Amino acid sequence: MSAPVVRAEGLDLTFATGDGSVHALSDVSLDIGRGEFVSFIGPSGCGKTTFLRCVAGLETPTGGTLEVNGMSPDAARQARAYGYVFQAAGLYPWRTIAGNVALPLEIMGFAKADRRQRVEEALALVDLGGFAGKFPWQLSGGMQQRASIARALAFDADILLMDEPFGALDEIVRDRLNEELLALWARTGKTMLFVTHSIPEAVYLSTKIVVMSPRPGRISDVIESPLPAERPLDIRDSAEFIAVAHRVREGLRAGMEAL
């Protein structure tokens, strides 16, 4: 077996605030393999986003160890090992969609011709090839999030970190983007780390679901999905899907009752 893309062992993180310390993560141990789609679910404040930020090198754990592609998160960030998609698309309104997708490539110093090719390829991956010259305000919310995903894909990182990217969208748009994201994952083989509050979304998308307890965030269950790689939306009506969703719900309930 190949080494995990992300390996956390006994990870702990305590924030110092003006009101005292906040214990955000406690004894988190987890291995994520190459090409897995891993969703993190739990109540607000349970450390889902904090764990993602640790992987990205944006927060520094106060205990335990964390490796990304066999190196420290800081080294992985410098090696451009990941792309990050936030809940808000975060597109600059004065830049075209192509200009927004190209921005990290400009910062990284890619040549103009290389930037153009990478932007075209990334937009094609998210079915926005005909919208390169549009501005963000000319796109729907779902299309803006697809542009944000294209920006994270443009420099071809191995890992995609996604922090509730569809949380603000209506259910119909969210369903469509879930389908598109699964198709994108199948085409690219990226390792996906995905934060969500939605049980159906976590079950539909994931090969592995990490259920987290309320603060301090601990892993209360890790569920390996039995669902096939090909997942039409109506798989959500299947007995297998309902059984996984029930286990996730029970894990969340057990975490709350342990308080």
Automatic annotation (TrEMBL):
Domain of life: Bacteria
Keyword set includes Acyltransferase: no
Organism whose genome encodes this protein: Palleronia aestuarii
An example Gene Ontology molecular-function term: ATP binding
SUPFAM superfamilies, per the entry: P-loop containing nucleoside triphosphate hydrolases
Signal peptide start and end residues: none
Name this polypeptide is given: NitT/TauT family transport system ATP-binding protein
InterPro entries for this protein: AAA+_ATPase, ABC_transporter-like_ATP-bd, ABC_transporter-like_CS, ABC_transporter_ATP-bind, P-loop_NTPase
Limits of the ABC transporter domain: 6-239
Family: Belongs to the ABC transporter superfamily.
Keywords, ordered alphabetically: ATP-binding, Nucleotide-binding, Transport
